[in-house]
Amino acid sequence: MADRNATTTWSGDLSSGSGTVTLDSSNSGRFPVSWSSRTAEPEGRTSPEELVAAAHSSCYSMQLSGLLTEAGTPPQTIDTSAEVTFGQSGGGYAITGIALTVRATVPGADRTTFDEAAQKAKEICPVSAALAGTTITLDATLV
């Protein structure tokens, strides 16, 4: 396996400062970040929580695809959204939950096979594992 890298350059104090996240490994771009993008409207900036949502939704989709394929029912499409909740917790700020919403078209899959694969993907997706201790909910629908 390979390592993946990103770099953030931050200027200023927490509340009025800002930074840029660069996706070094893929050379996929630079994204502005700020404290206000975490706690208020993003205003064209991303946040660590949005990047976690992107990582989780893509990881989960790949994991579910692999499990469904192993079961003999490769998916046609999987649409996964991840909503990461960030707020005050225990005297500071934390990710307090993640809601995964999945809609999948899987020719030949029955509801039981799909539900089992969807739940297992939530449990073994590497990003889910990295977020152990965070409440992760799943709403998965076979369409």
UniProtKB/TrEMBL annotation:
One of its GO terms (biological process) is response to oxidative stress. Pfam families: OsmC (PF02566). Residues 1-39 have a biased composition (Polar residues). It comes from the Bacteria. GO terms for molecular function: peroxidase activity. Residues 1-50 are annotated as: Disordered. This is Osmotically inducible protein OsmC. It comes from Halopolyspora algeriensis.
